[in-house]
Amino acid sequence: MAKQSRSSAHRTRTETPSGGRRAPSARRGPRPRRATPPASAPPLEWAGRTRPELLTLAKRAGVSGRHRLSKAELIRVLSALPQPQVAEPAPVTMPPPSEAAPPQRGEPPVEGLPFRYGVTEVVGLPVDPFLVYVYWEVTPEAIAAVRQALGAAWEGSAQVLRAYDVAWIEFDGTNAHHQFDVDVQGDVGNWYLHLWSPEQTLLFEIGWRSRDGRFVAAARSNLVCTPRNAPGEGGEERWMTVKDGRIVTTPSGAVPEPSAARPELYAGVRWEWAPWSATLPPQQGISSPRGWR
Amino acid sequence: MTPQPGYLCLILHAHLPFVRHPEYPEFLEENWLYEAITDTYLPLLDVLSGLETDGVRFRLTMTLTPSLLAMFDDHLLRSRYVRYVTQRIALAQDEECRLRDDPTFGPLASFYRERFERARDAFVHRYRQDLTAAFAGLQERGGLEIITCGATHGFLPILSLVPSAVRTQLRVAVDSYARAFGRRPRGIWLPECGYAPGLDRYLHDEDLRFFVMEHHGLLYARPRPRFGINAPVYCPSGVAAFGRDLESSKQVWSAKEGYPGNPDYREYYRDVGFDLDLDALRPYLLDGTRVNTGLKYYRITGQTDHKEVYNPARARERAAEHAGNFLFNRGHQIDHLAGGMDRPPLIVAPYDAELFGHWWFEGPQWIDVLLRKLHFDQSQIEAITPSEYLERHPTNQVVEPSASSWGHNGFYEVWLNGANDWIYRHLHHASRRMETLAARAPSLSGLERRAATQAVRELLLAQASDWAFIMKTGTMVPYAIKRTTDHLLRFQRLYDQILDRRIDDGALKEIEERDTCFPGLDLDRTFRPPSPEFDSPDRSE
Predict the structure, then answer these.
(1) In the 8-state DSSP scheme, what is residue A139?
(2) pLDDT digits (tens, 9 = 90+) for B51-62
(3) Are B219 and A269 a contacting pair at CB < 8 A?
(4) What percent of chain B has pLDDT over 70?
(5) Smallest CA–CA separation between B54 and chain A, in Å?
(6) What's the rounded mean pLDDT across residues A224-243?
(7) Cβ–Cβ contacts within 10 Å for residue A45, how many?
């Protein structure tokens, strides 16, 4: 009885592959420039990237002395790298294939916690403008359903995590701006997905792709919006008055005087973290309230 | 040039995770609270009440997180604090005895003995063990504005996959604040300054009118805010966002440019707990493990291991000098910013409260001098709280701030990385399971209701961002893992028992006595199933 009610509580989370999902309406304005290629194509259009973006990719690829390089030099160095170093996602904590298997690298002990929740799902969480963490679980029933849908093509098919770029569209399963696949393994798993540009709106599906390219999804994710990494556009200014927690005037275009733009407020502004901790030696057993940020 | 007027909003974020282990006679991690009471909370109370006595008008904003308030109110932890500080007094007395003929270190041992005695006296007699009431008094008398935080400091952007988890963090926080201070909080410190677009709507629903965010969350807002971080903005919901100022942060945080690294200040990392012979320390140690005792005889001196003896009087002078320097720099900053703004520029300077006193020993003295100088020595800069600012300037630009946090690199990686990512699938599933239980709340009574209420506590405790943070930073990791899994497992057992209608009364009683936070927790206000008209369209359910 109890088990039944628990599984039924989660059944609604299993999504049909064809179910459309609206992109959020909160984000308005011009679509950001993006260069998300399908994974099968040569992935990177280096020239379309800003130097900070190239620097980020170079950092990920471990290019030393990258800050001294010009944009052209960065492109040359990055182009020379084997693509997986910058473009392919890196598995971080792949789960063991079965409950009996020992935890793998980086997997902390989770003794007693469920390894499977009996729910078919895929969840995406943004980490930073260029990184998304995805975890999933696919139940045996869902795998059986995919297998049935693929029929004979199941043999030789590959499990993939498919990412869709769905900014500003009502996604119907076919109209993504871009999509790309990452080969993954495991009915329970997770993946860090490195992206090529910030401010993406993504959906993920976990499923299987046959040799002839047919894809059947077992689950679709929540919508994942990755953060901006630079000041936003100017755009129309709106001002609002709030008193005692109530909006007393609706947003309007009225701009207070003086109305001169203040570009200098942004001059030289860039995110910089001043790591005080870098100079303080870590000391085992020290009891600190928070660690030193 | 005439100095331009401006505002300074000084914010101290006081937070510790809920650590309470009645199952052990002593517990090392409980020392986090005891050290912070001795080093930070009591000295700050001392400074602020001193300002009141001297008629100094000051304006300071502080977060007291619900988990910290829960520990302030706990009788076991209170009595253990008295035991802790009494032990420290005894250790300092031993040291006085050992160093009685030492003209260099002897006076320092006495300095600490007096300091610990003052702490015990203030805690026991002056505040009658009730630090919440002490801070509440400062707020009632007008100098201090206390804001709230997530109930257990859960990192909201990641929890928000299940919106009811965010709502519960906020509601329990608001309720806890109301119990402690007799009114609703006006604003909130988002745990770790973690923001994602849309979170403002949850704040709005709890009538929280402002929050503080990392500066690039505002600078990257859309559209770009006209006044950058020098005026708050309104999110689309009407909730105000205040941006943290980078320059003033750096002066206090940074190793290179910051004050706390000055050679005259006390060196945190030379403690008699590590310097003294183990046999002399043994009566004061738990299981013979060396710990920080709070008795530290050296000053920072320089970059090398060579350390010279600490001179409290000299350090105090330095703190006063640094307070003057801070004010001088803010004046220049305001002069620079003022042109072209329709109002005085605002500088928001938030810090971890525990920086002051615990890490930067002279920090409370710095605050003391700073607030006095603001009052007596100048008229350019006015100290202000966020609420006061919004009363004075209720018209602000409307923007959509950008996702951000105050962690390393400014986004979510500190709380979501290879060292701690495994916790989130469990936290998300537990939240959904809690929604299932909460949906049955109206029909639950007696034992089942108690069990469901305790399940909320366990889940909230598992959500604390502190555990993910500790797993990432690498010290005390086993404790953080144990706390996360223990609370999740307790939650899971209660969940199973409620669904099976077989509550283990004895086990429930045991964990109720162990995880006592939020005694007034109202099950009916937590983990309510989503309301379709509000919760985001990208929900998975």
Answers:
(1) -
(2) 999 999 999 999
(3) yes
(4) 97
(5) 31
(6) 89
(7) 12
Chain A interface includes B432 (CB < 8 A): yes
pLDDT tens by residue, B130-189: 999 999 999 999 999 999 999 999 999 999 999 999 999 999 999 999 999 999 999 999
User: Which residues in chain A (32-91) have CB-CB distances under 8 A to chain B?
Assistant: none
Give the residue carrying structure tokens 């909370």.
B41
Tokens for B294, please give them.
């709070």
Amino acid making up residue B14: A
Check if B397 contacts A (Cβ < 8 Å). yes
Residue A123: its H or E element: strand A121-128
Burial of B378 by CB count in 10 Å (0-12 exposed, 13-18 middle, 19+ buried)?
Answer: middle
With the C-alpha atoms ordered B153, B155, B159, B160, is the resulting torsion angle positive or negative? positive
B492 contact residues in A (CB cutoff 8 A): 113-114
Q: A286 to chain B: which residues are within 8 Å by CB?
A: 292, 475
Establish whether the linkage from the previous residue to B163 is cis, with ω within 30° of 0. Answer: no
Nearest to B84 by CA among B42, B18, B32, B132: B32
Antiparallel, parallel or unpaired: β B6-14 and B381-383: parallel
Contacts of A164 (CB under 8 A, 6+ apart): A171, A176, A178, A179, A202, A203, A204, A205
Put simply, the answer to whether A110 touches B422 (Cβ < 8 Å) is yes
Q: Comparing B101 with B535, which gets the higher pLDDT?
A: B101
Averaged confidence pLDDT in chain A: 67
Token look-up 């693929």 returns A150
| DSSP type of residue B286 | B
Question: Which among A13, A8, A38, A12 is positioned nearest to A122, based on CA atoms?
Answer: A13
Tell which of B44, B149, B216 to mutate to test the A interface (max A CBs under 10 Å): B216
Q: Is B476 helix (H, G, I), strand (E, B) or coil?
A: coil
The answer on pLDDT for A95 being more than 80 is no
Q: What is the pTM of this model?
A: 0.83
Measured between alpha carbons, how far is B457 from B371 in angstroms, rounded to an integer? Answer: 39
- The total of other beta-carbon atoms located within 10 Å of residue B50's CB is 13
Sign of CA dihedral A227, B350, B271, B307: positive
Render the burial of B328-364: b for 16+ CB within 10 Å, e for the rest.
Answer: eebbebbbebbeebebbbbbbbbbbbbbbbbbbbbbb
User: Whole-angstrom Cα distance, residue A9 to residue B538?
Assistant: 19
Question: Residue B360 carries which DSSP code?
Answer: B
Least confident of A39-48, A142-151, A241-250, B225-234: A39-48
pLDDT per residue over B1-52, tens digit each?
688 999 999 999 999 999 999 999 999 999 999 999 999 999 999 999 999 9
Among candidates B35, B249, B395 on the partner chain, residue whose Cβ is nearest the Cβ of A287 = B35
User: Is residue A142 very low, low, confident or very high in pLDDT (cuts 50, 70, 90)?
Assistant: very high
User: CA-CA distance, B82 to B79, in Å (whole number)?
Assistant: 5
Band (A272; pLDDT cuts 50, 70, 90): very low
Q: Cα separation of A148 and A150, whole Å?
A: 5
Task: Determine contact, residues B66/B176, Cβ cutoff 8 Å.
Answer: yes
pLDDT at A51: 72
